[in-house]
Fold this sequence. Notes:
The chain is an all-alpha fold.
Amino acid sequence: MTNKELLYVEDALSHEEFMKTCAQNTSAQLQDAQLASYAAELQQQHNEIYNKFLNLL
């Protein structure tokens, strides 16, 4: 893996971690059960994507 590719993976990991955290914080604050459930699903999706990128290393 080249240095440039490694930097891309690092950037993608950071982005996915940020999105996962945002979804987690949002789901905790929402009062509407459907929206909170959707935010929790988004958190899970971003967690899966994060793990896929991590496995590239």
